[in-house]
Amino acid sequence: MFKKSLPTIVYTVLLICVLTLAFNVERAMAEDNLLLEMQASKTLITIGEEVNITLIVTNVGNTIFSRTYYWAPAPRFDAYYFAPSGIVSYGDGTVFIPVVVEFTLEPGENITRTLRWDLYQHIDEEYYPPVPGNYNLCGSCDLTHDGIFDLLFNPIFVTVTIVGDWWNLADVNFDFEVDIYDVVLAVNAYGSTPLDPDWNPHCDIAEPYGVINIYDIVMICSHYGETYP
Question: What are phi and psi of 187, to 5 degrees?
Fold first, then answer.
C-alpha cells in the first residue's frame, strides 16, 4: 500500500514550486501535452478521517500519447505530504503481473485514480496518526515506472488542515454521543490493521496505533455515556 519516499532533496526543490488553487483542484502540465489534475474531497480533516484524492491525467494535445510498459501496469499514482517527521507517501496499491502493456490516451481522453487515505504514516511496520496542522497534500504520476515521477517537475498541491480537537475521539461514529454503537464499531474492527478490509481508522484512538485492540475499546468505554456539551 505504502510506497518508498523519493529522495528528500527532490521534494525540497518541489516544495519551492507550491501553487494552491481555491477549490481544492490543482493542475500541472507535463510534456507530451498531458495535464495532471488533482481534487481533494475535503480540506478540513479530523485525525482518523479519510480523504479521497482524485488524480486525473488528460491528453490535451492533438496526437495520441503512447507508452509501452514492461513488467508493470498502466501509470502509477501517488500522494504525499510533508510532516514534521518527514515525507509521508501513499500509492494506489496496484497489483500487477509480468506482462507487456501498451498504454494509450487519445486526444481528450483521460485516466483517473482515486486514492482513499487517512493520512497515517507508516514507519518500520507501525502506523502513526498525522500531527494536527496545515499541510500541502500533493499528487504525482509515474508514466514510465522508472521510479521518476514524470509529472513531478510541475507538481500539484492542495492545502489541507488536520485537526485533532474533535470533541471526543471515543465518539467514533461522530453522532455527538459515546454509546454502544461506538463500542460495536470498535468490536467489529477488533484486531484489524490498515491493511485489512475491516479496518476502521476512527476506532484507532489509543496506543499502540495501527491496530484496533483492547486499549481502543477500553478508551471508548471510559467515555461511555458522554455527550457533546
Answer: -65, -40
